[in-house]
Amino acid sequence: MEGLSPWVLFFAAIFTGNILLTYFLGMCSFLSVSKQLKTAFGLGLAVTFVLTITAALNWLVYWYLLDPLGLEYLRYIVFIVVIAASVQLLEMFIERYSESLYINLGIFLPLITVNCAILGVSLFMVIRKYTFIQSVAFGVGSGIGWLIAIVAMAGIRERINEKKIPAALQGPGIALIISGIMAMAFIGFSGMVQIQ
Amino acid sequence: MTVLILKTIFLITAINGVLAVLLVIAERYLANYGECKIQINDQKEIQVNGGTSLLSALSSQKIFLPSACGGRGTCAYCKCKVQNGAGPLLPTEVPFLTQTEIESQIRLSCQVKVKQDLQISIPEALFAIQKFDSEIELIQDLTYDIKLIRLKLLEPDHIQFKAGQYVQLVSQPYGKVKGSVQRAYSIASPTYETGIVDLMIRLVPEGICTTWVHEVLKEKDHVQIIGPMGDFKMHEGEGEIIMVAGGSGMAPMVSLLSDILCKSGQRKITYFFGAVTKRDLFFLDEMAEFERKIPNFTFVPALSDPQPDDGWKGTTGLITVPLANYLSSIQTDKAQGYLCGSPGMIHACISVMKEKGMPGDQIFFDPFG
Asked: In CATH, what class is B35-126?
């Protein structure tokens, strides 16, 4: 992966290897918080922010602490601790500086801690041996990819509310079908760049 | 292997330590909103530490808004008007506020966080609310599931209240219950007894506070109460007074009757008390005494399901039956109703009273939450 430009990784993480629609990570908040465009956008931004920061932090922790000490096996637990702490910090930060974001997001912030997309990105970047810059680009890209996916989903769901849906498919049923179709649409991008 | 274990311990400790320190620093600087001023009713001003809820900021300054759920945003007793500085309405408040309340800036004080200077309005009577330390002087079984507890006030050592008001009993952790809750109970003692507070507490299955009272509390234990609160009280009037209560709804009625006894008014009073069987009846001697001492007072206990061995010769049926019969026989347009009991009972009795011609604004009630 040495040769891959951070830009390529950035766009690849958004389109060809969308963390949500290709790897199906971060599904729970994707399904539960995609009913309103505004909230979805806020959560997407928070995920992007947390992803970028945790990717950078976890990269440093992994390559400067875990790898030299031969403690790679600890990466799951250490990554989760780092993620949990940064989400807490983010929560305090948002509460202090943006009331409206806090109101729309406050109750979902704890969800980010257990959002597997965030752990997923940290694990992918060490498994694929990205450099620091690549990891940050991958983190931002994945976050934006997730944001685009959930915002698109929320947009569709807001519209679909006005339509007639068979009773059996209402709610989660139709949401899963929509995400399936969205994922297929994203396959269309896969010919451009391939990251594994 | 040992090296690996040591390294693991070292690393986990180091990372967790650093993150903990970071969080503590953030808590200190990010979640610290400094000193904030709260201006109350345009006259009083208090200084509090920001970052907590308005409810707890006020109680730290010994101003107690009613609250039964302990600040979790479920009981909506702690409503107050916030003119300035509360920020936008939170999704957790919306379900408890009517459109009119939202327009007149009513908020749930347990959900509003103090982050800047605030301007609020609360009823003057709330300033009289205090927290009392007290000692249990007496615990007495009134029925198989209702206990009377008498609290001797220690600090402050006396309370001033209106008959019909309630206090909140603060439970302490016991057994598997780790937290403390506050529950409202009407005061049964007369207003002139300022050194004690009597409460009647019925055991609610699975109830956190009532189980604590019934199974944990002993005489000589120290407990805290907050009060007095509530606006259930005697109102001026000329017509007959109709009282209806069930179970521990007896409590405020006893206090009201003691007050009436002192004032020796001439209004006719009829008190309907609903119970299921004879073992649910209590305070019969006290009621007989009130009947002797208060002119024109009648106590009408009614059993809805008397057992054969109760030997019951009194009124039978749901309390609404004798109530309706009695109301048909009197002039109801000036009568006043006072009700305390379960919401179901109160609701049914209010319907009967209105049906029989009692004015709706002369019916006062205190439902158990």
From this structure: alpha beta
